[in-house]
Amino acid sequence: MDTETQDTERDRSAVPNPSAPATDRAVEGSRSRLSWLPGGVWTAAGLALVAVLLLVSRFVAQPFGIPSASMEPALRVGDRVMVDKLAYRFGGEPRRGDVVVFDGTGYFGDGDYIKRVVGVGGDRVRCCAKDGRLTINGKPVTEPFLHAGDTPSDVAFDVVVPDGRLFVLGDHRADSADSRDHLGSPGGGMIPLSSVRGRANLVVWPPSRWNGLQQRDAYARVPAPSAAAHG
Q1: According to the model, what pLDDT value does residue 12 have?
Q2: Active site residues
Q3: In Å, how far are 19, 103, 147, 171, 215 from 76, measured between CA atoms?
Q4: Pairing, β 165-169 against β 157-160
Q5: What is the pLDDT of residue 61?
Q6: What are the φ/ψ torsions at residue 126 (nearest 5 degrees)?
Q7: DSSP 3-state assignment of 160?
Q8: Amino acid 141: pLDDT
Q9: Cα separation of 104 and 196, whole Å?
Q10: Separation of alpha carbons 36 and 130, rounded Å
């Protein structure tokens, strides 16, 4: 019997096959390194996916559920919108007509709120003109997104929005607690830009309600703030 040949064969069976594809060897190696983790590679992949989703939700986009009727008809209770958290991160600021989600703590109450931007820093927002419309910097505006049967406001107001803040209203004016209701509160009902979480661009659930939310065209003819408009 050739014992040297037998020993050689045993040695070959004791080491990885050098002719195996490199990818197979890499997968086998990763499995051995993750043997301590229940589920091994699949569990690690799942944890990595969860981490990515958390990062996206924290810094990029996040779903937001609609809790009230204050933004009807654009948003109904139970709708879910996707909030773009990068919309204002790189020098951009909310514009009239944008729908924004913001932290109302210290201004509206604890928690996040969703409203439409009507006035930005420097704007003079008044209600109502002789024809019943809201005016911004002296220009009456028509708001086609208002809830049927609602007036622009059943509360008279005349405010100048400080720089770095926003005047926000709900589309369902008769059922919305917004900047009008907090004019005597700290900050005068004006939301700091730093409290804005992001811009709600789209209804994503239910699918039958998919639609965009921005209404900038309604305010397109509003002039820039001026001393005359503030007089």
Answers
A1: 42
A2: 70, 115
A3: 62, 20, 11, 11, 17
A4: unpaired
A5: 66
A6: -135, 155
A7: strand
A8: 96
A9: 9
A10: 75
